[in-house]
Amino acid sequence: MNDNDKAIRAGREVVRIEQLAVAALAERIDEKFARAVDLLFRCEGRIIITGVGKSGIIARKIVATMNSTGSPSVFLHPTDSVHGDLGIVRADDVVICISKSGNTDEINALLPMFKRLGVPIIAIIGRTASPLASDATVILDASVPEEACPLDLAPTSSTTVA
Questions:
Q1: Are 123 and 102 in contact (CB under 8 A)?
Q2: Which of 9, 97, 101, 120 makes the best surface tag, with the fewest CB within 10 Å?
């Protein structure tokens, strides 16, 4: 097998793994999803979206999409928020937290503050048994059976599903 054939085979395998992850996600769209949509539709403030690392990059993309569709949204960096930026969150906002593990220190530090403000929390998470899931108003299961990265280092399927 030459290098071109290897590259083609690897590319097809990545797409196959991600296709399976997205197909599994489609089966999990249920009343929780409908509740999340309802919270966002009825939001009288802004949609605050947060995440760390690759989840933060996905959060920024969702913010851009929400703003493009007329839903006022802002990215809140979890680390910056505990150093003063949390002041952008108001009681009439809705928060979306994106986390593969559902247990990042930065997000965990925000949860009591969100709860004190009384904002609904939509969690897009890869582990439904996690601290974030425990504090969320709505849990959207973004788990994947495997990442497309052969070394399981880079979040691939999980970022696609989020």
A1: yes
A2: 9
| Number of residues that this document lists for the chain | 162
Question: What is each CA distance from 17 to 2, 10, 127, 135, 162, in whole angstroms?
Answer: 23, 11, 19, 31, 15
**CA dist., res. 41 & res. 51, Å (int):** 21
pLDDT 10s digits, 113-147: 999 999 999 999 999 999 999 999 999 999 998 88
Average pLDDT over residues 53-71: 96
